[in-house]
Amino acid sequence: KVVFEKDVTDVIRQLAMPHGVFEIKCESVEELTANGTDAVTFMFSANKGYAPENMAKAASGGELSRLMLAIKSIAAKNNYIPTLIFDEIDTGVSGRVADAVGDIINTLSESMQVIDITHLPQVAAKGNTHLLVYKEQGVTHLRPLTDQERVVEIAKMLSGSTITDAALSQARHLLGK
Asked: Among 21, 103, 110, 163, which residue is least crowded by beta carbons within 10 Å?
């Protein structure tokens, strides 16, 4: 428990929460429940000098996304999980934090398959393969993008429907081209 708490705390501190603390509170309950005889609560504090509270109450939307990434990444490292799927795990973050999220997801992909649904160019650019998800007549489709299509798609993430030369240049930069 102590090692898991420390490892999760280390990850959340990489995600722009330098004073973040994660703890696990375990309490015995009198009666056997569907969850056993223990009540487990994840406790969290993002701010220096504040005692950790129930994560569900203490974390904002962006903090909760980062906490879930930290918990899942540490749990995945300690258990054999062949595939990890993140559906907008980066909600509520941007800039430097989005870059850190992308780094953590990329590191995880070195030892397992990771599928990440994202709208952030900093995260999308760190993937090995980029699939375009789109709907046609109510049916969802996936299509792998070529290198050039990937540049254009990331430029769209940066600039919206009007793709500028600056967005294309930044997309190439994020992709390391």
From this structure: 110
